[in-house]
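Holo prediction — flavin mononucleotide.
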Amino acid sequence: MKGIEFIESTRYGDDPITSDERSGVNQPELEEPPAGDLIELPDPDRETVHELDLSEAIELRESFRDYTDESLTLTELSYLLWCTAGVKWAFPEGAFRTVPSAGCCHAIDTYLAINRVKGIKPGIYRYIALDHSLETLPAYPDLQEDLSAACFDQPCVKQAAVVFIWAADAYRMIWKYAERGYRNLFLDAGHICQNLYLSVLPVECGCCAIGAFKDQGMNEMLNLDGKDRFVLYLASVGKVDQTEAEPEEQQ
Ligand SMILES: Cc1cc2nc3c(=O)[nH]c(=O)nc-3n(C[C@H](O)[C@H](O)[C@H](O)COP(=O)(O)O)c2cc1C
């Protein structure tokens, strides 16, 4: 079985780890510098989101798939990006963010397929965490159709105001951990998505993790080679009709 081969080939044994870091290879950049136009994001403005007790947020957390047509504001999007990938403190060799990451490598980039965010043209963007801004990527015709098809036509993907797409820039992790680093990428993605699940609540949104996607289709949409850079995980996000906010049946 291929899955067990992955576990075996990424196992820690008694031998010391050999990695590029240990061999003296220079650390890669913390984040690929943007090449496209940048959109400055507003302050995440934690003061204006609804106050929500952490225990209550954990209790209320659910996968929500039925969004209204309402748009998110740019401040709400900025808040969600800060909660899931925001930089709290950067220094030359790394950056502490709002989510943990093995070895502080933070090798996951957040791409956004924006459908309805006030003041932003629908399209694909990359979050530049070190600058808290959005890089505009080349225009993508039929974005909603292709994205939905790449996610097996899941309705929540088509209905979403924004789809978060988390993609590995693997060498930022592999440099430190070699083969073991591949496991860390998936673990890191889980923490990011959990922060999204909790942070959508105070901005009256819902989200749903999406693990069912066609790898090649998603990588091609983002122009990723599928080897050094590849999509790990997605989540649909949209506004919740507050009058009908009932827990959904499990899927
Ligand atoms: C790794 C992972 C992948 C998932 N993929 C999908 C998916 O592709 N489509 C979907 O509708 N829900 C997906 N979900 C959501 C689960 O179906 C959901 O978490 C589960 O049914 C429990 O419901 P709850 O999140 O409301 O507690 C995924 C969840 C996880 C953690």
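READOUT: The mean pLDDT is 95.
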